Amino acid sequence: MFYYFLRRLLLLLPAFFGITLISFLILQFVPGGPLELELLKMKMGNLSGEVSTGGTVYNYSIPESALNEMKKFYGYDKPLFERYTLWLSNILKFDLGKSYTYNEPVFDVITSRFPVSVYFGLIGFILTYLISVPLGTLKAVKNGSKFGLISSAIVFAGYSVPGWAFGAMALIFLGGGSFLNVFPLGGFHSEGFESLGFFEKIADLVYHTVLPISAYVVGSFATLTILTKNAVLESLSQDYIKTAYLKGLKKKDVVIRHALRNSLIPIATGFGHFLSLILAGSFLIEKVFNINGMGLLGYNSVINRDYPVTMGILVFSSILLMLGNIIT
Predict the structure, then answer these.
(1) At what angle do helices 106-141 and 307-327 cross, to 10 degrees?
(2) What is the β-pairing status of strands 56-58 and 51-53?
(3) For the chain, how far is it from start to end, CA to CA, in angstroms?
(4) Got the DSSP string for 262-323?
(5) Cα separation, 89 vs 84, whole angstroms
(6) pTM score over 0.90
(7) Distance CA 128, CA 154 (A)
(8) CA distances (Å), 243 to each of 60, 235, 246, 248, 321, in order?
(9) What angle do CA 37, 39, 43 make, to 5 degrees?
(10) What angle do CA 181, 185, 191 make, to 5 degrees?
(11) Would you give per-residue pLDDT tens digits along the chain (328 residues)?
Protein backbone atom coordinates (compact mmCIF):
# COMPACT_ATOMS: atom_id res chain seq x y z
CA MET A 1 0.00 0.00 0.00
CA PHE A 2 2.85 2.37 0.86
CA TYR A 3 4.56 1.84 -2.49
CA TYR A 4 1.23 2.29 -4.29
CA PHE A 5 0.74 5.72 -2.75
CA LEU A 6 4.38 6.56 -3.37
CA ARG A 7 4.02 5.76 -7.08
CA ARG A 8 0.84 7.80 -7.29
CA LEU A 9 2.52 10.74 -5.57
CA LEU A 10 5.48 10.56 -7.95
CA LEU A 11 3.09 10.62 -10.90
CA LEU A 12 1.78 13.96 -9.64
CA LEU A 13 5.01 15.66 -10.69
CA PRO A 14 4.75 15.12 -14.48
CA ALA A 15 0.97 15.70 -14.33
CA PHE A 16 1.47 19.00 -12.50
CA PHE A 17 4.23 19.99 -14.91
CA GLY A 18 2.01 19.25 -17.94
CA ILE A 19 -1.02 21.11 -16.53
CA THR A 20 0.92 24.22 -15.62
CA LEU A 21 2.99 24.26 -18.83
CA ILE A 22 -0.04 24.02 -21.13
CA SER A 23 -1.97 26.62 -19.13
CA PHE A 24 1.01 28.97 -19.03
CA LEU A 25 1.49 28.74 -22.79
CA ILE A 26 -2.21 29.36 -23.45
CA LEU A 27 -2.18 32.47 -21.28
CA GLN A 28 0.93 33.79 -23.01
CA PHE A 29 -0.48 33.35 -26.52
CA VAL A 30 -4.03 34.57 -25.85
CA PRO A 31 -4.46 38.05 -27.41
CA GLY A 32 -5.22 40.96 -25.14
CA GLY A 33 -2.73 40.19 -22.37
CA PRO A 34 -2.02 42.43 -19.37
CA LEU A 35 0.43 44.62 -21.30
CA GLU A 36 -2.02 45.17 -24.16
CA LEU A 37 -4.81 45.80 -21.65
CA GLU A 38 -2.75 48.44 -19.85
CA LEU A 39 -1.89 50.14 -23.13
CA LEU A 40 -5.55 50.09 -24.09
CA LYS A 41 -6.43 51.83 -20.82
CA MET A 42 -3.87 54.50 -21.68
CA LYS A 43 -5.46 54.82 -25.10
CA MET A 44 -8.83 55.38 -23.51
CA GLY A 45 -7.18 58.20 -21.58
CA ASN A 46 -7.17 60.25 -24.81
CA LEU A 47 -3.49 59.78 -25.56
CA SER A 48 -2.54 60.23 -29.19
CA GLY A 49 0.20 58.93 -31.46
CA GLU A 50 1.12 55.42 -32.49
CA VAL A 51 2.85 52.55 -30.72
CA SER A 52 3.32 48.99 -31.97
CA THR A 53 3.80 46.04 -29.57
CA GLY A 54 3.77 42.44 -30.66
CA GLY A 55 2.11 43.23 -33.97
CA THR A 56 -0.67 45.28 -32.33
CA VAL A 57 -0.85 48.98 -33.15
CA TYR A 58 -2.22 51.51 -30.67
CA ASN A 59 -3.04 55.08 -31.66
CA TYR A 60 -1.05 56.92 -29.04
CA SER A 61 2.61 57.53 -28.23
CA ILE A 62 4.58 56.32 -25.26
CA PRO A 63 8.31 56.67 -24.56
CA GLU A 64 10.30 53.60 -25.48
CA SER A 65 11.86 53.50 -22.01
CA ALA A 66 8.42 53.45 -20.37
CA LEU A 67 7.29 50.67 -22.71
CA ASN A 68 10.37 48.62 -21.83
CA GLU A 69 9.68 49.13 -18.12
CA MET A 70 6.13 47.87 -18.63
CA LYS A 71 7.40 44.82 -20.47
CA LYS A 72 9.83 44.16 -17.62
CA PHE A 73 7.06 44.53 -15.03
CA TYR A 74 4.85 41.94 -16.79
CA GLY A 75 7.81 39.69 -17.61
CA TYR A 76 7.66 40.12 -21.39
CA ASP A 77 11.31 41.18 -21.55
CA LYS A 78 12.34 37.50 -21.27
CA PRO A 79 11.90 34.56 -23.67
CA LEU A 80 8.80 32.40 -23.17
CA PHE A 81 10.61 29.32 -21.83
CA GLU A 82 12.65 31.43 -19.41
CA ARG A 83 9.41 33.02 -18.14
CA TYR A 84 7.95 29.59 -17.38
CA THR A 85 11.07 28.23 -15.70
CA LEU A 86 11.28 31.38 -13.56
CA TRP A 87 7.61 31.01 -12.57
CA LEU A 88 8.06 27.29 -11.81
CA SER A 89 11.15 27.93 -9.69
CA ASN A 90 9.18 30.51 -7.67
CA ILE A 91 6.37 27.97 -7.19
CA LEU A 92 8.87 25.51 -5.73
CA LYS A 93 9.78 28.27 -3.26
CA PHE A 94 6.05 28.67 -2.42
CA ASP A 95 6.07 32.08 -4.09
CA LEU A 96 2.99 32.53 -6.31
CA GLY A 97 3.99 36.04 -7.36
CA LYS A 98 2.19 39.34 -6.95
CA SER A 99 -1.25 40.21 -8.25
CA TYR A 100 -1.45 42.86 -10.97
CA THR A 101 -4.93 43.92 -9.84
CA TYR A 102 -4.67 43.90 -6.04
CA ASN A 103 -0.92 44.64 -5.80
CA GLU A 104 -0.67 41.99 -3.08
CA PRO A 105 0.99 38.57 -2.89
CA VAL A 106 -1.13 36.04 -4.76
CA PHE A 107 -1.04 33.65 -1.79
CA ASP A 108 -2.64 36.29 0.46
CA VAL A 109 -5.25 37.17 -2.17
CA ILE A 110 -6.27 33.51 -2.57
CA THR A 111 -6.27 32.58 1.11
CA SER A 112 -8.47 35.58 1.96
CA ARG A 113 -11.20 34.10 -0.30
CA PHE A 114 -10.53 30.54 0.80
CA PRO A 115 -12.94 30.34 3.80
CA VAL A 116 -15.90 31.57 1.72
CA SER A 117 -15.46 28.84 -0.91
CA VAL A 118 -14.93 26.20 1.79
CA TYR A 119 -18.15 27.31 3.52
CA PHE A 120 -20.35 26.97 0.43
CA GLY A 121 -18.49 24.01 -1.03
CA LEU A 122 -18.54 21.94 2.16
CA ILE A 123 -22.24 22.52 2.81
CA GLY A 124 -23.06 21.74 -0.81
CA PHE A 125 -20.91 18.59 -0.69
CA ILE A 126 -22.59 17.28 2.48
CA LEU A 127 -26.11 18.03 1.25
CA THR A 128 -25.39 16.42 -2.13
CA TYR A 129 -24.39 13.13 -0.53
CA LEU A 130 -27.19 13.28 2.07
CA ILE A 131 -29.73 13.64 -0.76
CA SER A 132 -28.18 11.57 -3.55
CA VAL A 133 -27.17 8.40 -1.70
CA PRO A 134 -30.56 7.75 0.00
CA LEU A 135 -32.46 8.81 -3.14
CA GLY A 136 -30.35 6.61 -5.40
CA THR A 137 -30.72 3.67 -3.03
CA LEU A 138 -34.50 4.11 -2.85
CA LYS A 139 -34.70 4.36 -6.64
CA ALA A 140 -32.80 1.08 -6.94
CA VAL A 141 -35.09 -0.68 -4.45
CA LYS A 142 -38.22 0.67 -6.16
CA ASN A 143 -36.88 0.39 -9.69
CA GLY A 144 -39.69 0.44 -12.27
CA SER A 145 -42.31 1.71 -9.80
CA LYS A 146 -44.26 4.96 -10.03
CA PHE A 147 -41.85 6.54 -7.54
CA GLY A 148 -38.91 5.50 -9.73
CA LEU A 149 -40.43 7.11 -12.82
CA ILE A 150 -41.31 10.39 -11.08
CA SER A 151 -37.93 10.64 -9.33
CA SER A 152 -36.13 9.86 -12.61
CA ALA A 153 -37.95 12.75 -14.29
CA ILE A 154 -36.83 15.07 -11.48
CA VAL A 155 -33.26 13.78 -11.57
CA PHE A 156 -32.93 14.16 -15.34
CA ALA A 157 -34.46 17.64 -15.14
CA GLY A 158 -31.78 18.54 -12.59
CA TYR A 159 -29.11 16.94 -14.78
CA SER A 160 -30.15 19.04 -17.78
CA VAL A 161 -29.97 22.36 -15.90
CA PRO A 162 -26.48 23.66 -14.99
CA GLY A 163 -26.08 24.93 -11.45
CA TRP A 164 -25.35 28.49 -12.53
CA ALA A 165 -28.43 28.54 -14.81
CA PHE A 166 -30.61 27.30 -11.95
CA GLY A 167 -29.10 30.02 -9.76
CA ALA A 168 -29.91 32.72 -12.31
CA MET A 169 -33.53 31.50 -12.57
CA ALA A 170 -33.81 31.34 -8.78
CA LEU A 171 -32.67 34.97 -8.52
CA ILE A 172 -35.28 36.02 -11.09
CA PHE A 173 -38.15 34.22 -9.36
CA LEU A 174 -37.11 34.54 -5.69
CA GLY A 175 -34.52 37.31 -5.52
CA GLY A 176 -36.68 40.39 -6.00
CA GLY A 177 -36.87 40.28 -9.78
CA SER A 178 -40.22 40.22 -11.55
CA PHE A 179 -41.79 37.82 -9.03
CA LEU A 180 -41.06 37.18 -5.33
CA ASN A 181 -38.61 38.97 -3.06
CA VAL A 182 -37.75 36.11 -0.71
CA PHE A 183 -33.95 35.91 -0.83
CA PRO A 184 -31.15 38.45 -1.44
CA LEU A 185 -29.66 38.99 -4.87
CA GLY A 186 -26.29 37.70 -3.76
CA GLY A 187 -23.34 38.26 -1.50
CA PHE A 188 -22.05 36.36 1.50
CA HIS A 189 -23.76 38.46 4.15
CA SER A 190 -25.63 41.73 4.60
CA GLU A 191 -24.12 45.15 5.23
CA GLY A 192 -23.53 45.80 8.90
CA PHE A 193 -22.96 42.09 9.51
CA GLU A 194 -20.30 42.74 12.14
CA SER A 195 -22.74 44.69 14.32
CA LEU A 196 -25.27 41.83 14.47
CA GLY A 197 -25.65 39.47 17.41
CA PHE A 198 -24.55 35.82 17.28
CA PHE A 199 -27.91 34.34 16.33
CA GLU A 200 -28.64 37.23 13.98
CA LYS A 201 -25.37 36.48 12.16
CA ILE A 202 -26.35 32.82 11.79
CA ALA A 203 -29.78 33.80 10.43
CA ASP A 204 -28.18 36.25 8.00
CA LEU A 205 -25.73 33.62 6.74
CA VAL A 206 -28.55 31.12 6.24
CA TYR A 207 -30.55 33.81 4.42
CA HIS A 208 -27.68 34.33 1.98
CA THR A 209 -26.82 30.63 1.73
CA VAL A 210 -30.08 29.01 0.57
CA LEU A 211 -29.99 29.93 -3.13
CA PRO A 212 -26.23 29.41 -3.76
CA ILE A 213 -26.30 26.03 -1.99
CA SER A 214 -29.37 25.03 -4.01
CA ALA A 215 -27.41 25.83 -7.18
CA TYR A 216 -24.42 23.79 -5.93
CA VAL A 217 -26.63 20.78 -5.15
CA VAL A 218 -28.63 20.90 -8.39
CA GLY A 219 -25.42 20.97 -10.38
CA SER A 220 -24.09 17.74 -8.86
CA PHE A 221 -26.83 15.66 -7.21
CA ALA A 222 -28.26 14.16 -10.43
CA THR A 223 -25.05 12.42 -11.48
CA LEU A 224 -24.39 11.07 -8.00
CA THR A 225 -27.99 9.83 -7.66
CA ILE A 226 -27.82 7.90 -10.93
CA LEU A 227 -24.40 6.49 -10.00
CA THR A 228 -25.74 5.34 -6.62
CA LYS A 229 -28.82 3.76 -8.18
CA ASN A 230 -26.80 1.80 -10.75
CA ALA A 231 -24.26 0.64 -8.15
CA VAL A 232 -26.98 -0.56 -5.73
CA LEU A 233 -28.91 -2.25 -8.54
CA GLU A 234 -25.80 -4.18 -9.51
CA SER A 235 -25.23 -5.22 -5.90
CA LEU A 236 -28.85 -6.34 -5.47
CA SER A 237 -28.42 -8.79 -8.35
CA GLN A 238 -25.46 -10.57 -6.74
CA ASP A 239 -25.68 -14.03 -5.19
CA TYR A 240 -24.68 -12.91 -1.70
CA ILE A 241 -27.82 -10.72 -1.59
CA LYS A 242 -29.99 -13.73 -2.38
CA THR A 243 -28.14 -15.66 0.34
CA ALA A 244 -28.88 -12.88 2.82
CA TYR A 245 -32.59 -13.07 1.99
CA LEU A 246 -32.52 -16.86 2.41
CA LYS A 247 -31.01 -16.43 5.87
CA GLY A 248 -34.14 -14.50 6.83
CA LEU A 249 -32.67 -11.00 7.02
CA LYS A 250 -35.09 -8.12 6.66
CA LYS A 251 -35.09 -6.22 3.35
CA LYS A 252 -33.93 -3.03 5.08
CA ASP A 253 -30.92 -4.79 6.60
CA VAL A 254 -30.03 -6.46 3.30
CA VAL A 255 -30.12 -3.18 1.39
CA ILE A 256 -28.28 -1.03 3.93
CA ARG A 257 -25.81 -3.50 5.48
CA HIS A 258 -24.94 -5.46 2.34
CA ALA A 259 -25.99 -3.85 -0.96
CA LEU A 260 -25.33 -0.21 -0.10
CA ARG A 261 -22.09 -0.91 1.75
CA ASN A 262 -20.61 -2.70 -1.26
CA SER A 263 -21.88 0.03 -3.59
CA LEU A 264 -19.98 2.85 -1.89
CA ILE A 265 -16.68 2.15 -3.70
CA PRO A 266 -17.77 3.50 -7.13
CA ILE A 267 -19.64 6.32 -5.39
CA ALA A 268 -16.46 7.41 -3.61
CA THR A 269 -14.54 7.77 -6.89
CA GLY A 270 -16.05 11.22 -7.43
CA PHE A 271 -14.67 12.49 -4.13
CA GLY A 272 -11.59 13.95 -5.80
CA HIS A 273 -13.69 16.22 -7.99
CA PHE A 274 -15.80 17.31 -5.03
CA LEU A 275 -12.70 18.04 -2.97
CA SER A 276 -11.45 20.52 -5.55
CA LEU A 277 -14.96 22.03 -5.79
CA ILE A 278 -15.17 22.40 -2.01
CA LEU A 279 -11.89 24.26 -1.72
CA ALA A 280 -11.62 26.05 -5.04
CA GLY A 281 -15.24 27.07 -5.48
CA SER A 282 -17.44 27.20 -8.54
CA PHE A 283 -16.57 30.00 -10.97
CA LEU A 284 -20.00 30.58 -12.50
CA ILE A 285 -22.11 30.04 -9.37
CA GLU A 286 -20.01 32.51 -7.38
CA LYS A 287 -20.24 34.93 -10.30
CA VAL A 288 -24.05 34.65 -10.49
CA PHE A 289 -24.47 35.24 -6.75
CA ASN A 290 -21.57 37.70 -6.43
CA ILE A 291 -19.92 35.57 -3.74
CA ASN A 292 -16.41 36.79 -3.09
CA GLY A 293 -14.78 33.36 -3.03
CA MET A 294 -12.04 31.68 -5.04
CA GLY A 295 -14.40 31.00 -7.95
CA LEU A 296 -15.26 34.66 -8.45
CA LEU A 297 -11.63 35.57 -7.89
CA GLY A 298 -10.60 33.17 -10.66
CA TYR A 299 -13.26 34.51 -13.00
CA ASN A 300 -12.21 38.13 -12.43
CA SER A 301 -8.53 37.26 -12.77
CA VAL A 302 -9.17 35.83 -16.25
CA ILE A 303 -11.27 38.84 -17.29
CA ASN A 304 -8.71 41.32 -15.91
CA ARG A 305 -5.74 39.32 -17.30
CA ASP A 306 -4.32 38.96 -13.78
CA TYR A 307 -2.18 36.00 -14.80
CA PRO A 308 -0.36 35.47 -11.45
CA VAL A 309 -3.73 34.99 -9.70
CA THR A 310 -5.02 32.80 -12.55
CA MET A 311 -1.97 30.53 -12.34
CA GLY A 312 -2.08 30.55 -8.54
CA ILE A 313 -5.68 29.30 -8.51
CA LEU A 314 -4.73 26.72 -11.14
CA VAL A 315 -1.95 25.47 -8.86
CA PHE A 316 -4.35 25.16 -5.91
CA SER A 317 -7.10 23.49 -7.94
CA SER A 318 -4.87 21.01 -9.77
CA ILE A 319 -3.08 19.91 -6.59
CA LEU A 320 -6.38 19.46 -4.74
CA LEU A 321 -7.89 17.49 -7.62
CA MET A 322 -4.88 15.18 -7.93
CA LEU A 323 -4.68 14.61 -4.18
CA GLY A 324 -8.41 13.93 -4.09
CA ASN A 325 -8.01 11.31 -6.82
CA ILE A 326 -5.24 9.62 -4.83
CA ILE A 327 -7.39 9.56 -1.69
CA THR A 328 -10.27 7.93 -3.56
Answers:
(1) 40
(2) antiparallel
(3) 13
(4) HHHHHHHTTHHHHHHHHHH--HHHHHHTT--SHHHHHHHHHHTT-HHHHHHHHHHHHHHHHH
(5) 8
(6) no
(7) 15
(8) 83, 13, 5, 9, 40
(9) 110
(10) 105
(11) 677 778 877 888 888 889 899 999 888 888 878 888 777 777 776 444 444 444 444 445 677 787 788 888 888 888 888 889 999 998 988 888 889 888 899 999 998 888 888 888 888 888 888 998 899 889 988 888 888 888 888 888 888 888 888 888 888 888 766 678 888 888 888 888 888 888 888 898 888 899 899 888 887 788 888 888 888 888 888 888 888 888 888 888 888 888 888 888 777 776 666 666 665 557 788 888 888 888 888 888 988 888 999 999 888 888 887 877 777 6
The amino acid at 233: L
Phi, psi at 244, each rounded to 5°: -65, -40
Question: Looking at the domain covering 107-327, what would its CATH class be?
Answer: mainly alpha
Q: What three-state secondary structure class fits 175?
A: strand
Enumerate the domain spans of the chain: 35-95, 107-327
Question: CA-CA distance, 97 to 105, in Å (whole number)?
Answer: 6
